[in-house]
Amino acid sequence: MRGVQYTVSDVMTSSVVALAGGAAFKEIVRAMRSRGVGALPVLDGGGRVTGIVGEADLLRAEEARDGGPEEPSGAAAARAVTARDLATVPAVTVHADATVAGAARLMARHGVKQLPVVDDAGRLIGIVSRSDLLTVFLRSDEDIAQEVRRLVAGRFPVPLDTVCVEVREGVVSLTGHAPDASSLPLVLRLVGSVEGVVDVRSAITASGREGAGPVPSGANLPGSGTASA
Questions:
Q1: pLDDT at 168 over 50
Q2: What CA–CA distance (Å, rounded) separates 64 from 167?
Q3: Rounded to whole angstroms, how far apart are CA atoms 46 and 132?
Q4: 197 closest CA partner among 163, 162, 165
């Protein structure tokens, strides 16, 4: 039994400004400034994401035009004047059913700050940013506590008053007694993976021994699934 995991669909923005492949340089700049974003997806005629144009792409093209590039890649950048030519391809995308943790790993792996969200046909349905992913930590302490209690009860079929769950600012404190020492490490890891949990502190005893111990590295990340790209 796992806690309910947030997915990209829970935190993404559905209203997205995107660029047609033929969008001109100045049109791209205006769109970025009006939306206060540093990158925009580029779509083909069917609404499928073909690339991403970011501020770095625009500046690279301007630098190439100004500096008289000697490399072939620089010459190509100097000639780029539309979104299609300026875009970084292929775009790194994510599916709406990917977990928040999976999307975060995808961003970190590719060094990007946002991901276009696409359907199975590659059509744009939303956008998710780093700040969107952090919204899972805005869950109330009581909401987190209720989910942790359900998780603990599912693993330890004993009266809930034998294990006390308290949450303060996202930090979960567990006290009491559990009947199965072998399940305790897994329970702590699962509690750490509950969306919005910042840390887990356990003083649970199990089968006559202390159950306290560090939560495995990574257990405090929101979710543990793999993003689809």
A1: yes
A2: 54
A3: 27
A4: 165
- Superfamily designation of domain 139-210: ANL, C-terminal domain (3.30.300.30)
Fold of 8-135: CBS-domain (3.10.580)
Contact by Cβ (8 Å): 229, 93: yes
Closest CA to 93 of 178, 12, 181: 12
**HSE, side-chain direction, 13 A CA sphere, residue 70:** 0
Question: In three state form, how does the secondary structure of 109-140 look?
Answer: HHCCCEEEEECCCCEEEEEEEHHHHHHHHHCC
CA distances from 210 to 150, 176, 181, 204 (A): 22, 10, 9, 6
CA-CA-CA-CA torsion sign (39, 45, 49, 50): negative
Residue boundaries of the structural domains of the chain: 8-135, 139-210
Token couple for 39: 């990158």
The pTM of the full predicted model, rounded to 2 decimals, is: 0.66
pLDDT higher at 206 or 21: 21
DSSP 135-199: GGGGS-HHHHHHHHHHHHHHHS-S-GGGEEEEEETTEEEEEEEES-GGGHHHHHHHHHTSTT--E
